[in-house]
Amino acid sequence: QAQLAESGGGLVQAGGSLTLSCTSSGRTFSNYYMGWFRQTPVKEREFVAAINWSGNTYYADSVKGRFTISRRNDKNTVYLEMNSLKPEDTAVYYCAAALRIVDYGDYEEYAYWGQGTQVTVSS
Questions:
Q1: At residue 28, does pLDDT exceed 90?
Q2: Of 123, 83, 117, 122, which is closest to residue 5 (Cα–Cα)?
Q3: Cα(101)–Cα(5) distance, integer angstroms
Q4: pLDDT for the residue numbered 2
Q5: pLDDT given at position 79
Q6: What is the pLDDT of residues 70-102, one digit of tens each?
Q7: Distances (CA, A) of 113 to 11, 12, 68, 77, 107
Q8: In whole angstroms, what is the distance from residue 21 CA to residue 62 CA?
Q9: In Å, what is the CA distance from 79 to each residue of 41, 47, 72, 116, 122?
Q10: Which one of 17, 19, 81, 89 is most buried, counting C-beta atoms within 10 A?
């Protein structure tokens, strides 16, 4: 079972950068597919990026070319580097984990979730 904790959120100006981290307490972190999702009060949870155990990455079209997901299995940590941030990137960002995935973009396929970290991009 994975327990996830995100960090790194904050307030940044448009065009700026932030890097989010998500650390797992589980001992089998390398077996998990890891994903990042985001949610605002007016939108349902939205897929951002995912990475599988071998390092293959997947991105939402809205963040492709600006965000990079990566993982350090020796540190039980997944990262989301966010560049060229826009006000519409403002959301609570959640880290998620799953042992099996069919659709990376479907939040219902992820069994474990962090508590979320707020990212606010000012214009």
A1: no
A2: 117
A3: 21
A4: 79
A5: 98
A6: 999 999 999 999 999 999 999 999 999 999 889
A7: 22, 24, 20, 14, 10
A8: 20
A9: 24, 15, 8, 14, 22
A10: 89
